[in-house]
Amino acid sequence: MRRWAVAAAAAIFLAGCSGGGDPDPGPTTTPTPSVLPSATPVPGPAAEACYRLAYGEALAPTNDRPAVDCDRRHTSQTYAVGRVDTVVDGHLLAIDSTRVREQVARTCPEQLGGFVGGDEDDLRLSMLRAVWFTPTVEQSDAGADWYRCDVIAVAGTDDLATVTGRLDGVLDEQEGRDRWGMCGTAAPDARDFARVLCSSDHAWRAVSVVELPDGGYPGEADVREAGQTPCQDAGRDAAEDPLDYQWGYEWPTAEQWAAGQTYGRCWAPD
């Protein structure tokens, strides 16, 4: 038996994906106007539309790419559209304020599982992630108050998978879980380890999730210890010979815990 243990890394897996962009403008507020803007509001995005986004575009807070046919090559699909609440205590919040951004950052990941199917562990063991967009400041000034949630498939460190067709319910079936699953080019602590789709060439697979206690970050020693037995068992279960097997454990850092990844992953050769 051989084992590997490594702290989880890769910024895009902190808590799924998150919209990035300009420095946080802080809690800027403006008084609620007595006269509404006269400009025609910018129309909201279409539900379940598809887009051909580059990696950097998927992580940006706004996006103006035109939609494409979902039956053609694309890299993201919208799965939820809604309206942000920009009025708090009688004040109108800026669309790029911390409170509005956090509101969307909570909402979009919560709705992803219901769209792609499977259970919570299936999603955590996949390369499917949520990204989200809001209007530009100029669009917001014209009356736009929508948010848009897209699902993407991460293909590598700085790359998105190309999709043909739709991602609705893809984790309900084993074929979809295999295609979009999380695999690695080597053991998770190896120097040449890279996270890849299981439909690509790979050597290891993330095979199960280690649930960790709710609350604040327990500390690296505790989260590391929590995965030893369950991941050893997972490695044994995945092996052809229960007396000769390998396993790995990837636990969350304090930063990842704060961003929402309050679980670890077990790995095994595949």
TrEMBL record:
Domain of life of the organism encoding this protein: Bacteria
Domain Septum formation-related: 63-266
Pfam families: Septum_form
Cited InterPro entries: Septum_form
Keywords linked to the UniProt accession: Signal
Signal peptide limits: 1-20
Protein name: Septum formation
Organism: Nocardioides lianchengensis
